[in-house]
Amino acid sequence: MGGPSLRDEFNKDYAVVQAKQEELKKTEGAFDPAHYAEIVKNGGVKKGQEVFNTNCVPCHKEKGIGDIGPNLSDNSWLWAKGTPETIFPVVFNGVPQNGMPTWGGNLSNDEIYEAVAYVMTLHNTNQAGGKAPQGNPVDDAPDFDNIALKSVQ
User: Which of 16, 24, 44, 78 has the greatest count of CB atoms below 10 A from its CB?
Assistant: First the structure.
C-alpha cells in the first residue's frame, strides 16, 4: 500500500476546511464602522430590536436583563468592551465555551450589525430585574445618540 491512509487524507482535507473557516471568520466577521453607521442611520436600532427579540431573548431576556446569557443592560462585559466594534465579533463568532452560539452564517452581517445597534441602546440602562453584573465594568457609558458617528471618525 505505502500511500497515505484514509485517516491521513481526511485529516489533511479537514485542516484545509478549518483554515478556510478561520479565514472566513476574519474577513466576514470584521467590523466595518462605516457600514455600522449606515445601518444605524437607516433604522438599524428598530430592526435590531426585532433581530434581538427573535434570536437573543431566549438567553438574554427582553431588554437584555440576562438569564442564561449575561445582563446586557448593566455596565459590565464578559467578552466585549461595550463598544460596537468589540460586540460585533462576539456575536458573529459566538462564545462556544459559554454556550453562546456563532451567529455568523445563521444571521446576515446586516442583522448582526442591527442587533449590535440595539444592544448599544441597552448598555448601562440597568433594567429592573436584571441579572447580577458579570465580567469587567466599562467606565464610560457611550453616547447612544452619536455612537455610530463616533465609531467612523
Answer: 44
